[in-house]
Amino acid sequence: MNILFIGIIIGIVAGALDALPMIIKKLDRKDTVSSFVQWFFASIVIALVDIPEVAWWLEGSIIGVALAIPIVIIVSKTDKKSVPVILITSIVLGALAGVAIHFLTEMSKSL
After folding, report:
1. CB-count burial class (<10 Å; 0-12, 13-18, 19+) for 10
2. What average pLDDT does the segment 84-108 reach?
3. Nearest-5° angle of CA 54, CA 59, CA 60?
4. Which residues constitute the domain of residue 57?
5. Which of 36, 53, 84, 93 has a 20 to 30 A CA-CA distance from 47?
């Protein structure tokens, strides 16, 4: 299976996981779409980037947090309580995306 395709699939799943609570809480539609799109592309980046001398399971969290920083800066102007939630979500979803991408890539190599 192609690494880009794996990143896209994981991106859809990660985006849905991040957007679902926002949908349930009936938050702004644009915020929800923005969150989905951010995780869709973040997962593709996580799949395609290899940070030298960083463990594969940690790469996802690093990239997830790095790509969330612009969103955190914008959100912090109006809603300081959301900043830790965004950062924690970025760490967790980034790590989960990294782990899923690693295992799916390894699994596809053995097929």
Report:
1. buried
2. 95
3. 170
4. 3-110
5. 84
